[in-house]
Specification:
By secondary structure, the chain is an alpha+beta fold. It has six helices and 18 strands. Helix content is 15%, strand content 34%. Bound molecules: magnesium ion (MG).
Amino acid sequence: MKLASVEYNGKTLVGIIEDKVRILDVPDMHSLIERGLRDLESIEVRTLELDDVKILAPIVHPKQDIICLGMNYLDHEKESAAFDGKTFEKKSDNVYFSKRVNRAPGPGATIPSHRDITECLDYEVELAVILGEDLYKAAKEQTYQAIFGYTILNDITARDIQRRHLQFYAGKSLEDSCPMGPWIVTADEFSEEPDLRIRTFVNGELRQESRTSLLLSNIGEILEELSSYMLLKKGTIIATGTPAGVGMGFTPPKYLKPGDEVRCEIEGIGELTTFIGD
Ligand code: MG
C-alpha cells in the first residue's frame, strides 16, 4: 500500500494512492502512524483524482532529526576514501549522524542551490525506513515488525560545509535539502531485508546504481544497534546510506548546479525527481 501526503485546495491531506487517491480522515501522516493501519476503510472519507492533487513529501515536517548512516555501501566507502587520498582498508563501525529537516520537499520540488554558502552541493539516494512502533533494546528479529514502511530520500549534502566542521550536521542540514517521496510503501509489501535496485540520474545521466541488499549493515542490524543506545520513537526516519556515484566521487567532481534535474529511483517504491534552483 502506498501512503502519501497530498495537497488539495490548499489543504494537506493523507491518502492511499491507487488509480485514485482514497483520502483518510487523519490530520497528517504522524497521526496515521500513531493510529496504525488496521481497518483503514473505516476512516476513508472521499476519493480524489490523482490529477487533482499535488503529491508532497510523505512526512512534510519530521518530528525529529533524520538519523542517517554514512559509509553503508562498500563502493561508496571506497570512493570516499579515494577522495581523501586514502585507501579503503576495512569497514569501520557504523557512522551515524543526524540531519535537520524543518520541511521536506516532495516530488517535483525545486531545491535551493545555496550558492551563497556552498560550491559543492551533492546528491545521495537512500532507502529510508520509517518506524511505526517504538523500539528500545530490540533484538534484530524483533525490529522488522516495528517498520511502518519505506520511502526514497535524497540526502542533499554541501560537501565543503560537511568537511569544514568536525561533524557532518551543518553540511547535511541546509534548508529544504531533504527531498522525500513520492510516498511511503508499507513494510508488508517487502521482505524483511528487501533487495531493491537503487539509482540516481542527473539530467538523465546514470550516476548511482546499486542494490539495497548490498548495505554493509542491513536494516535489522541498524535498528538493533541504534535501539541498544536510544529509544527510537514511532515516526523515526532512518536514511540507510548511499551507494557510490555521488558527485564527490568523480574526477573532477560533478556537483549539482542550478537547472539540474535529479531523479532518484528505488525499485518497488517509485521515483523522486527534484530540480536545483538558482
Ligand atoms: Mg547520506
